[in-house]
User: What shape does this take?
Amino acid sequence: MAALVATQRFCQAGKAKKLALTACMRKLLTILNAMLKSGTPWRVTASHPA
Assistant: This one.
């Protein structure tokens, strides 16, 4: 969801959609790379319990 909001904000700021999506992909890849290096597992946490 955060990537979707960031993409929308880039588009509202007048940036191209492809540029906005590429920026979000780069951010997610950076996070995943850091997780792999440190051996941190992916944890799914619910911010709003149902």
Notes: The mean pLDDT is 83.
